[in-house]
Specification:
The structure holds 2 protein chains of 2 kinds. Chain A is α/β, with parallel strands linked by helices. Chain A has 7 helices and 10 strands. In chain A, helix 3 runs parallel beside helix 5 and helix 5 runs parallel beside helix 6. Chain B folds into 2 domains: 184 residues, no CATH class; 177 residues, no CATH class. In chain B, helix 2 crosses helix 11 and helix 3 packs across helix 8. In chain B, 39% of the residues are buried. Classes of the chains: A alpha/beta, B alpha+beta.
Chain lengths: 217, 403
């Protein structure tokens, strides 16, 4: 389903060149729930950004559902992000001054979806937030915000969910809740990739991949 | 993305930063207000000029002496129009309604101890009709008085006040360069025209002026009025031809007189006020330009501040075009909002000028509103494009990481 071959990525930080990914190859099957584990600075976030088509590798190939995507034009990548991939970020990344419903609607608007409001409401229902639809992010707790973010990731019905430290900013109760949702989504047949440094979360996944200094162990 | 969603998102963004949005559009508000006020002022001035010129007599045509060339030597004395020309024109051009010979000169006028230099016009009775002069008191001179070279005068309101103060001028005897004249009429006030003041003059029969007062053999010119419905261009050509015949000018010689109609004068003045309009409008549009730069400044700040939002939107599938449109739309909306308020401001200042100013009047045209509004939209597009472009071309991952 997802295959990267020999991808490398370098960054320039001041005068220093940092190798974030060094010839990484990885394959992820459909309906897998996988954890990418590593310390901060290990290159795990860079790997996730490339898998999520937010960034391109300097070299190597990336096949998404059998199609090489690393060289596609920006607009095609935007379409892939819109339809095939759902993102869940550590800091939620909800837009302020917009209600939960409007936040969840957003990907559908960019997709040109006709019945955005109904779909967004249904997605919020999936994460048990139908009672908070018209609240703005500031009026919601951390766990609720992350559930809104998950609803937003779900709303275009993508086959892959990418989560970057999804529980990093949450208390343990919310933590449990979020993981339960991920497991439920995985049961529905979605591929879930969680980037984390927390071994407890990694243990809940079927498969763990460890990364250090830009290389898989 | 749907246009309605775009409007909603843009409005939300603007509303969230009310004070900043207002300051951003302040320049546009002032600019549009200034453009509308200036154009309306210029239009008001144009109307005023047209009104004043028309009050000098409509369908008026004047013939004035030009330079006469005699075997290559130019005669500078301007003695080219004679009384005979006037008589011939009256006989041969049926299109003429009224015609009056005119002589003009300054003269020393005395009444008791008052002593002033006054422009004296010698003319026929018809002159009053041609020049739209009406009398507030007394009468104009008659035909017999003209034939007899009577020493009678009609006096301008200003001159009357200078000489007699509050006293009734009718029947008073004044001395004009030593000759006694009787005041028989007082002109209605017309107002200073700038280049000449019709309220400061004496009008006497041209016969008296030529023979008794100034000793002139030639005319200072001929004023005439055409009949209603006459084609002025054709009449002008005819008068021109007859005058040239009279003066026995061969075709290659330039005319030794000039023929000017009120319509031409009006045209010339209109072109002057056109320049005035463009000048005022141009100055005002500079402030619109400055307003546009203000919008660009705020939009650049907004784009930087919302870098993370741009990253999020891109992660969710927004294309470069979606982001470009969103920010461009915001700046257009800002400018149009400013344009709308500016139009209100412009109308308000026009109203205030019309109410409180005695010397200036404004006149607004819907076209000016249209100009100001489309100009502000153009400013929004032009100055909004660069910030929007900067927003759109951001790399999603850099934008997401922006703190």
């Amino acid at each position: 389903m997802l295959t990267v071959k020999n991808i490398s990525k370098k960054y320039k930080m001041g005068d220093e060149i940092v190798v974030a990914l060094d010839r990484v190859s990885l394959s992820i099957e459909q309906s897998e729930m996988m954890a990418i584990v590593g310390a901060s600075g290990s290159g795990k976030s860079t790997l996730m950004h490339i898998l999520g088509c937010l960034d391109r590798p300097d070299s190597g190939q990336y096949f998404l559902q059998g199609k090489e995507v690393s060289k596609l034009p920006n607009n095609d990548l935007a379409n892939i992000r819109n339809r095939k991939i759902g993102f869940v970020f550590q800091f939620f990344n909800l837009l302020p001054r917009m209600t939960a419903l409007e936040n969840v609607e957003l990907p559908l608007l960019y997709a040109g979806h006709p019945a955005a409001k109904d779909e967004a409401a249904a997605a919020l229902k999936q994460v048990n937030l139908e009672s908070r639809m018209y609240h703005e992010p500031q009026q919601l707790s951390g766990g609720q915000r992350q559930r809104v973010a998950i609803a937003r990731a779900l709303v275009t019905n993508p086959s892959i969910i990418l989560a970057d430290e999804p529980t990093g900013n949450l208390d343990s109760k919310s933590n449990e809740e979020i993981l339960k949702i991920f497991q439920k989504l995985n049961d529905q047949g979605r591929t879930i990739i969680v980037v984390t440094h927390d071994p407890d979360i990694a243990k809940k996944c079927q498969r763990q991949v460890k990364i250090r200094d830009g290389q898989l162990l | 993305m749907l246009i309605w969603t775009l409007i909603k998102i843009s409005l939300k963004g603007l509303w969230a930063n009310k004070m900043r949005s207002f300051l951003a559009v302040l320049g546009i508000i002032i600019g549009v207000g200034a453009v509308i006020t200036m154009l309306a002022l210029a239009e008001g001035a144009k109307k005023e000029i047209t009104k004043k010129v028309s009050s000098l007599g409509s369908d008026l045509m004047v013939i004035r002496p030009g330079q006469k060339e005699n075997r290559g030597v130019r005669n500078e004395l301007f003695e080219t129009i004679s009384l005979k020309d006037a008589e011939t024109l009256l006989k041969k051009v049926p299109e003429i309604l009224h015609l009056s010979p005119v002589v003009r000169s300054g003269a020393q006028v005395k009444y008791l101890s008052s002593n002033t230099n006054v422009p004296v016009t010698g003319a026929a009775l018809t002159y009053f009709a041609i020049r739209n002069f009406t009398l507030q008191k007394g009468r104009a001179f008659s035909e017999p008085e003209t034939l007899q070279m009577a020493r009678v005068a009609v006096i301008g309101a200003q001159t009357a006040e200078d000489l007699f103060g509050k006293q009734d001028p009718i029947g008073k005897i004044i001395k004009v360069t030593g000759l006694n004249f009787k005041i028989i009429g007082l002109l209605e006030v017309k107002g200073d025209q700038g280049w000449y003041n019709p309220d400061n003059q004496l009008i006497i029969p041209y016969t008296t002026a030529m023979k008794r007062l100034f000793g002139l053999k030639h005319l200072g010119g001929i004023d005439l009025q055409l009949k209603k419905g006459v084609n002025p261009t054709l009449a002008e050509e005819k008068i021109n031809r007859i005058m040239r015949d009279q003066h026995r000018l061969p075709p290659e010689m330039p005319s030794d007189f000039t023929l000017q109609s009120q319509a031409e004068l009006l045209k010339a003045l209109n072109s002057v006020s056109m320049v005035l309009t463009m000048l005022l409008g141009g100055i005002a549009s500079i402030s619109l330009l400055v307003g546009g730069i203000g919008i660009m400044n705020i939009m650049l700040v907004t784009v930087t501040e919302r870098t993370r939002e741009i990253g999020i939107r891109k992660a969710l599938g927004a294309k470069n075009g979606d982001i470009l449109r969103q920010f461009l739309f915001e700046s257009i909306l800002l400018s149009l909002l400013g344009g709308g308020i500016g139009i209100g401001l412009g109308f308000l200042s026009c109203y205030l000028i019309n109410t409180f100013s005695t010397s200036m009047q404004t006149f607004n045209r819907p076209f000016y509103v249209f100009i100001a509004f489309s100009f502000s939209a153009a400013v929004g597009i032009f100055f909004g494009f660069y910030p929007a472009f900067r927003a759109a071309k951001q790399n999603p991952i850099d934008a997401l990481r922006y703190e």
